Amino acid sequence: MAETDHMMAVRSRINELAAKAKSPEGLTEDEVAERADLRAEFLDNFRKSFRSQVEMLQVYDENGKEVTPEKVKKIQRDKGLRGN
C-alpha cells in the first residue's frame, strides 16, 4: 500500500520535531503536543494498514494446501472477500 502525501508529510514533520528535540533549543510545549498528536495519527494509520494487509492474507503450506487461520477466513467472509 502506497503511503499518501499526507502521511509522508506527517512522517516528515515527526522527523523534524525529533531532530529539534535533540538540539540544544529543544521543543516548545506546543511542539511536544504536536509531536504526540502526529505520532498517534501515524500509529493509527499504520495499524489500519497492517490490519488490512493481514485480513487480505492467504497462507499455503509447502504442498499448496491453504492453511489460512480460521479467524482470518471469518473476517474475509464477513467483508465479502471470500466465498468459502
Account of the protein in words:
Keywords: Cytoplasm. It comes from Weissella thailandensis. Its main location: cytoplasm. The protein has helices at 5-22, 29-55, 70-78. It has one domain (3-77). By secondary structure, it is mainly α. It is elongated.
What is this structure, in a nutshell?
The protein is mainly α and about 80 residues long. The protein has helices at about 5-20, 30-55, 70-80. Helix 1 crosses helix 2.
Key traits:
cytoplasm, mainly alpha, 84 residues
**Class by SSE composition:** mainly alpha
Number of domains: 1
Number of extended strands: 0
Portion of residues in beta strands equals under 5%
Write down the secondary-structure element order.
Answer: HHH
Query: Into which percent range does the helicity of residues fall?
Result: 55-70%
Question: How many helices?
Answer: 3
Q: Gyration radius, to the nearest Å?
A: 20 Å
Q: Which stretches are poorly predicted, pLDDT < 50 over at least 5 residues?
A: none
Mean pLDDT: 93
**Distance, first to last CA:** 26 Å
Oligomer: single chain
The coarse overall form would be elongated
Largest sheet: none
